[in-house]
C-alpha cells in the first residue's frame, strides 16, 4: 500500500497537480546590481563543505521518492549525476525498503555510484511512534552508507491521508533520543509547509544542528493528497490547505535568527540558481531542489547533469553581478 501511494504521489507531481501558489517569498529578494564587479566569472568559487565533505556547489538534491518500482532507476540516475557534479543527495523515505524489502535502489549500490558525496538517509518522524527507533534508523543509514539521517516532519500530509499516521504525541523526546543514539547527524526536514522558529528551537534543544526548512510555495502535499482523495469530503478538506504553510523565505530567515550557528538548508519551491543565490543571501548554507530535477531524473543522468549546469550557471552569474567572488561574499551582497 505504501509503495502504491508513493507511486501515485510521483504521478500527481509530474502531472502538475501538486504545484503550490509559487509564493516562496524569495521572489521579493532583489540584489543591488554591481555594474563593475572586478571579477573573473569563471573563477568564482561556488564550493563549500557539508557533513565533512567538500562539495562543488551549494545544492542538495532533496528527497523525492523511496517506494515505487521506478525509484531504482531514478535513484541510480541521481546518484550518478550528483557524483559527477559533486552535489549531495538526499533519498526519499526508506520505510518501504525497511518493511517490505523493496529497496528501490536504496542500497549500497547508491554509495558505489556516488562514493565522494554526502548521502542522506530518510525516515518519517511518525514512524517513531510505530515501533521505529535507533535500530531501524541505523539500518536505514547503513543500507546506503549515509553520512546523516533525515527525519521528515509532515503532519499536514499525514492528517490529510486516509491512511495517514495520526498520533504525533511524544515525538520530540523520541527524536532527541535518536539524536543521542546515532553515530551520524540527524537532520530535521519539513516537506513543504515550513519549519517554524518554535519547532527549530525545541529540536535544537534536543541536539539537532541541521535543519531543512522546506517552506511553502513549491509542491503542495495538501494538493497531492486532495488529488488522491477517493471521497469528495476528503478532497474538500484538503483543498482548504493548498497554500498552507510558512513561505520558504520567511522560514529561512526565522531559522537563521533562531540558530545562528546551525546548518540551514533552504528548500520548498526553489527552481533556479538565482533562487539559490537569494536563499544563500538570506542565510541558507545549501539550496535544495526536488521537483525541478524530477523530469530530468526520469530521463537520464545526463539530463540531471545538464539541469545542474543550468542551476550552476545562474548562481555564478548572480555572484558575478553582485561582485561576490565566493559564497561568503554572496551572503553579504547588497540588496535593494
UniProtKB/TrEMBL annotation:
GO biological process: isoprenoid biosynthetic process
Reaction catalyzed: isopentenyl diphosphate = dimethylallyl diphosphate
Any single Pfam family the record assigns to this protein: FMN_dh
Binding site for FMN: 62-65, 93, 122, 189, 219, 290-291
Domain of life: Bacteria
Classification via InterPro entries: Aldolase_TIM, FMN-dep_DH, IPdP_isomerase
EC number per UniProt: 5.3.3.2
Leading EC class: isomerase
Cofactor (UniProt): Mg(2+); NADPH; FMN
Cellular localization per UniProt: Cytoplasm
Annotated ranges, domain FMN-dependent dehydrogenase: 174-334
Molecular function as annotated in GO: FMN binding; isopentenyl-diphosphate delta-isomerase activity; magnesium ion binding; NADPH binding; oxidoreductase activity
Keywords associated with the record: Cytoplasm, Flavoprotein, FMN, Isomerase, Isoprene biosynthesis, Magnesium, Metal-binding, NADP
Record-level GO cellular component terms: cytoplasm
Residues that bind substrate: 5-6, 93-95, 157
UniProt binding sites for Mg(2+): 158
PANTHER family: ISOPENTENYL-DIPHOSPHATE DELTA-ISOMERASE
Family in the record: Belongs to the IPP isomerase type 2 family.
Subunit and interaction comment: Homooctamer. Dimer of tetramers.
Role noted for this protein: Involved in the biosynthesis of isoprenoids. Catalyzes the 1,3-allylic rearrangement of the homoallylic substrate isopentenyl (IPP) to its allylic isomer, dimethylallyl diphosphate (DMAPP).
Name of the molecule in the record: Isopentenyl-diphosphate delta-isomerase
The organism of origin for this protein: Falsirhodobacter algicola
